[in-house]
Write a structure and sequence with these properties.
Length: 621
């Protein structure tokens, strides 16, 4: 207390007691109006002066000196705290009983050996806890005395070395963290219910949930500070600072960090799927990103309406149905895309990659698999024992594969059966006992040839009709009256003849008789002209059909840069129609290319050489 404080009733202030300690008849007290540091200084002065606190309440003593808050502003009677029974002397003879203290880092040890008799044969009284507190304080151990353990060994009188004091390590606080606040981002791994009410045990109900625009996704829970510790000397050991989070840095595409009255949140800015990348950044996109792989344990079979990117594997028998599929791991299952691109960064082994309206690209190895695109290109680096079909197929190295397309380009082909309208192979040859077969697909020109023949026949008919009508005109012109009339009419028109009234009357009568005949001649001349026009149209159509026939035939080509081993090239006729030649089940493709049933025409069969062949239709037509 300060010098201006009014004395506490019944308090006896010993002149030798440091400021902050009060001795009354009912005990020794701390003045709580002082700060803990001031009280520690008072206790230190007391112990150094050869005194101690007898009957010490050590837990309260420790709590007051190190863990108490700032000084209390309270009435005088409430500002005193009893911590001991009294202040008592600590003779030097008694201090000699506590020389076995060893301080090692964060612990203090004391060997409680048996007390020896003095020169007079008197055994000292037992060691006291209060004396040990005062002695350790003088040796720099102000904090962390284990009062329970020390009192227990003092009561038993055993000779034993124990740890009497320990430092208190600082307690870390709570790091800032993001807490989920939207039920919409939680997965539902219950089995999917089929339309007939049965459960599909191979598919999950909602593996990749969607969220709506403006939905709160995550809340920032701020960090909380930890509790300080103390070393044996009573020095404060500050706790580590809690880690803070930058909410804006955790908000990815389709999200934003916003502050509300009830806290800071990451909010969706559009409808979509929630993705969390390896750095913990959350985003909302129309694309699904997975890092766990597709298996019966993680996702089950998937049927999605959005683009999908998978960093794990697609296991055997798993089915992934979606659009625009990207897989970074190996694929052993079945991929079905309704559009976009199927991109595999690694291998396709024993699986399927089927795209209805888009390309398929495999950067690893395709082995024992089916790769098919109904309306797109297939690009492979290496294919082994695969069935491959597409609008255009480009492969670096293919072995023992069945390939069918409109256009095929292969750098190295071994033991493959390839069918396409245009085939370009850098090097071709057999593989072990499997022959190398190439089938340039040539069009079925029979319908065009029939059209050409029909048009030529109709042209001949029109020519025959023209000749017949011309003969009829010539026959009419040889009739006497017709010949005379035509002669007179010509002379009159040229002014070579002038008719008298009597002659004019005779001429008019002749013209009246000959008029029906002349009308018939005019009609026949019209038919002659029409026949000539129709014949010309048929000849033009024949020329057009022949050009179309030649163009269709020229689309079928086969080029071999190097033949390295027995290689056979046979032209295969493909019927005309809307159906695509490569739109067939894998079994049908294998049967078509590995059997001898289709009608073929030998083009090339040799073990060396090169080939640059373009289909030429048979002459005729």
């Amino acid at each position: 207390m300060s010098d201006d404080d009014t004395p506490v009733p019944d308090a006896a202030h010993a002149a030798s007691l440091p400021h902050g300690l009060v001795q009354r008849h009912d005990g020794a007290f701390f003045d709580l109006s002082l700060a803990p540091a001031q009280l520690r200084a008072a206790v230190g002065q007391l112990f150094l002066s050869g005194q101690l606190l007898a009957g010490l309440d050590y837990p309260l003593f420790l709590l007051t000196l190190f863990h108490a808050p700032v000084p209390r502003a309270a009435p005088k009677g409430d500002a005193l705290l009893r911590v001991a029974a009294r202040v008592a002397p600590f003779p030097a003879a008694r201090r000699a009983l506590y020389k076995q203290v060893k301080i090692r880092g964060d612990v203090a040890e004391f060997y409680f050996e048996a007390l020896a008799a003095d020169a007079d044969g008197q055994v000292p009284a037992r060691r006291e806890f209060d004396e040990l507190v005062a002695d350790l304080w003088g040796k720099g151990v102000l904090y962390g005395l284990d009062s329970v353990a020390v009192r227990a060994i003092l009561d038993t009188g055993k000779a034993e070395r124990i740890t009497v004091a320990r430092a208190l390590p600082p307690q870390p606080g709570r790091d800032a963290q993001l807490v989920e606040v939207s039920q919409g981002i939680h997965r539902d791994d219950a089995p999917r219910e089929r339309p007939d009410g049965r459960l599909d045990l191979l598919s999950f109900k909602n593996r990749f949930p969607q969220v709506k625009k403006h939905a709160r996704l995550l809340r920032l829970l701020p960090g909380a500070p930890g509790q300080p510790g103390y070393d044996l000397a009573g020095n404060v050991l500050p706790p580590p600072a809690p880690l803070e989070l930058d909410l804006a840095a955790a908000a990815g595409v389709g999200t934003v960090a916003e502050h509300f009255s009830d806290g800071d949140f990451i909010v969706a800015t559009l409808d979509g799927y929630v993705n969390v990348d390896e750095q913990g950044k959350i985003s909302v996109e129309n694309k699904i990103v997975s890092r766990e792989g597709v298996s019966s344990r993680t996702t089950g079979n998937l049927k999605l309406r959005a683009a999908y990117e998978e960093y794990g594997e697609v296991q055997e028998q798993r089915q992934l149905d979606g659009s625009d599929i990207t897989i970074h791991g190996d694929v052993y299952g079945h991929l079905h895309s309704h559009g976009g691109l199927i991109l595999l960064h690694r291998n396709l082994v024993g699986g399927t990659a089927f795209n209805e309206h888009g390309d398929v690209r495999i950067e690893g190895v395709a082995s024992g698999s089916v790769v098919q695109s109904l309306s797109g290109e297939v690009h492979l680096r290496r294919a082994e024992s695969c069935v491959i079909a597409g609008t255009r197929v480009v492969i670096d190295h293919a072995s023992n594969c069945e390939i069918i397309a409109d256009d095929v380009v292969i750098e190295l082909a071994e033991g493959c059966a390839v069918a396409a309208r245009t085939i370009k192979v850098g090097s071709a040859g057999p593989r072990k006992q499997v022959e190398m077969l190439l089938f340039p697909l040539v069009p079925d020109l029979s319908s065009l040839e029939q059209k050409i023949a029909d048009s030529l026949a109709r042209g001949a008919q029109y020519l025959q009709m023209r000749d017949k009508r011309q003969q009829e005109i010539d026959a009419i012109a040889q009739l006497p009256e017709v010949r005379n009339y035509l002669t007179l009419a010509g002379q009159l028109r040229r002014g070579e003849l002038q008719l008298q009234p009597a002659q004019q009357l005779q001429y008019d009568k002749l013209a009246a008789r000959i008029a029906p005949v002349l009308k018939e001649v005019a009609r026949l001349r019209v038919e002659v002209k029409q026949s000539e026009i129709l014949q010309a149209q048929m000849l033009a159509l024949v020329a057009q059909l022949r050009q179309e026939r030649q163009a269709m035939a020229g689309q079928s080509r086969c080029t071999l840069g190097l033949v390295d081993g027995e290689t056979t090239v046979r032209a295969m006729v493909v019927p005309r129609g809307p159906a695509k030649v490569y739109d067939r089940p894998p079994k049908e493709i294998k049967a078509l290319l590995r059997s001898a049933t289709p009608a073929t025409q030998l083009v090339f069969a040799d073990s060396t050489g090169t080939l640059d062949w373009t289909y030429a239709p048979p002459p005729g037509g």
